Amino acid sequence: MAASEENVSIADHAKRTRREPGALRQYATQLAGNPLGIVGLVLVVLIIGCAILSPWIVPYDPTQIFVGPRLGGPSWAHWLGTDQLGRDTLSRVIAGSRIAMLVAVATLGTALTIGLLLGLIAGYGPQWLDNILLLLFDAVRSFPVIVFGLALVTLLGPSLQTVILVVAITSVPIYARIARTQTQSLRNAEYIQAERAMGAGTMRTLAIHILPNVIGPLLILVSMDVPLVIATEAGLSFLGMGVRPPTPSWGTILNDGYGVIRNSPWPVISGSVPIVIVTLGFTFLGEALRDIFDPKLRRDL
Amino acid sequence: MLFYFIRRLGLSVIVVVLAVTILNVMLHLVPGDPAVMILGPRATPELIAKTREAMGLDRSFPMQMAIFFGNVLRGDLGRDVFTDRSVTTIVMEQLPYTLMLITASIAWAAALGIPLGCYSALHRNTWLDKITGVLSVSTISIPSFVMALYALLAFAVGLKWFPAVGAGEGFADSFHHLVLPAFAVGISWVGYLARIVRASMLEVLGETHVRMARAFGLRERKIVVAYALRIAVLPAVTLIGAGVAYLLSAAVFAEVIFARPGIGALIVKAVDSRNYPIVLGCVLVTTGIIVVATLISDLVNAWLDPRVRENL
């Protein structure tokens, strides 16, 4: 009897003192249990690696014109074939990953910062300001992204900056709305009330207590929006309204391919591979992350 | 319901007015003179002055806005820079093609996606459910213009089953021309709708009224169709309403890639030639379509679910 009691208490003690696995480790285990998430992670790492290392890993200069066959299919010398000018498609695709990632980081960074600020103001500020901001968000959201982008291109001319501006402006309302909802649900929480009762100023409350709680879900959303942003950049460049040739962007590569689609299928197929990889990669990874961190997230939209 | 409708309508009008104002403010913030931009660098000063006057740019900004809204209310969206035809006429000529494309896309996507989602929810974790899940995520994430290019490559250039160019004449021919673009625009919506219907169906199937119907011994088919699905399609309605903006963007690519007439093709051509009145007209009309679509889906939701009416 006594012995068994002792056993129990030892077991309890062991349970109590054994270290709980860290949060990061838990997430990693959860991610490992999600095969699509793993695929996503691998694809995302691949693309980001390409973007960072592109100057060193391209087999040829992306703008160099070869004397060999134009519109050639895949071969040992040119893994993804050559385009209508005889340029190496693989090199162009790898170089294009840099543009795509640049656009993604620049736009999502800008949109996140502005959206977060406006969302905090709308959620924490006076009611009338909230109403005005909400109307503004709705107004901007009622532009179809591509049509709005085309309108801006007419005004500013086609360039990388215009693309970044278009996507940033149209993404701000989405993030701002979510930041607003989160802030509103927090502003009446007990610990915030206590903080204010103790005399904390608005800035302190927002920066130290509300911001950290709002930013998490937004970051997951941002990771899920990467493919959307890249698709928009590629789309505008495809229409000839984004990045200008000869800079290799995935959109311009596809546009070149579209022009010769009756002569050779390879430029379109090779040019679309990275877009498919990047969109699938980020979507799979984003879905897995969302399932781990916050399954209810998208419903707020 | 009437009160809700009026408030919602009022808000929509404000949103449209705001959207147009934002666009016009941007036009003014841009460095350089719109008249110079339209005419190009080689225009003479007299021509620029004349164009400025014709565009009303010599007046103050609030005055310009007032005139602009007045014109829009009368259905006057200005004149084409090159042909001097009315922008309203030009846009309205192209609009039916785009509307047809969007409707066809969403129709086939709903006809396939909703039953698929329903089936997935009823037969959870079967192989078809799992395949649907993975395919949904994949098709949702691949951009529509890549889909359009693949469709063009495979079925028009390769197999030659469908035409690659134009919109066709007569019913059968138009339909034949519509298949590929509608496929490309709609495919991601199959996945979207299947996912959302599956999720809401699972939720509804657990609700009390469905269990009650089961307890009464109703046939499974009747429970699913008459009791569960009716409620489960609600989120899909909202999604379609909010998704018209995405459909319009996808239509732009489909129209360019398949060389179809329509708003998208019109605006791309207008941007190329810097035909600003046409661009502005297209933006205005598409924004209007989106606001109306959102309004309709909100109203449908309010009609089906009284709780929506209370918190606007």
Automatic annotation (TrEMBL), chain A:
Per UniProt, residues of the ABC transmembrane type-1 domain are: 97-286
Q: Which InterPro entries match?
A: BP-dependent_transpt_permease, MetI-like, MetI-like_sf, OppC_N
What is the membrane topology here? Multi-pass membrane protein
Superkingdom to which the source organism belongs: Bacteria
GO cellular-component terms in the record? plasma membrane
Question: Keyword annotations for this protein?
Answer: Cell membrane, Membrane, Peptide transport, Protein transport, Transmembrane, Transmembrane helix, Transport
Read off the SUPFAM superfamilies from this record.
MetI-like
Report what the protein is called.
ABC transporter permease
**Which residue ranges traverse the bilayer?**
35-58, 99-120, 132-153, 159-178, 206-230, 268-289
Which GO BP terms, alphabetically?
peptide transport; protein transport; transmembrane transport
TrEMBL record, chain B:
Residue ranges of domain ABC transmembrane type-1 in the record: 95-301
Keyword annotations for this protein, in alphabetical order, are: Cell membrane, Membrane, Transmembrane, Transmembrane helix, Transport
Bilayer topology: Multi-pass membrane protein
> Per the UniProt record, which residue ranges are transmembrane?
9-30, 97-122, 134-162, 174-194, 224-246, 252-271, 278-304
SUPFAM superfamilies in UniProt: MetI-like (SSF161098)
Q: Where in the cell is it found?
A: Cell membrane
Provide the coiled-coil residue spans.
none
InterPro entries (UniProt xref): BPD_transp_1_N, MetI-like, MetI-like_sf
Query: What do the Gene Ontology cellular component annotations say?
Result: plasma membrane
Please name the GO terms that the record assigns under molecular function: dipeptide transmembrane transporter activity
Pfam families tied to this protein: BPD_transp_1 (PF00528), BPD_transp_1_N (PF19300)
Q: Which Gene3D superfamilies match?
A: MetI-like
- Family, similarity comment: Belongs to the binding-protein-dependent transport system permease family.
**Sorted alphabetically, which PANTHER family does this protein's record hold?**
DIPEPTIDE TRANSPORT SYSTEM PERMEASE PROTEIN DPPB-RELATED
- UniProt protein name: ABC transporter permease
Source species taxonomy: Bacteria, Pseudomonadati, Pseudomonadota, Alphaproteobacteria, Hyphomicrobiales
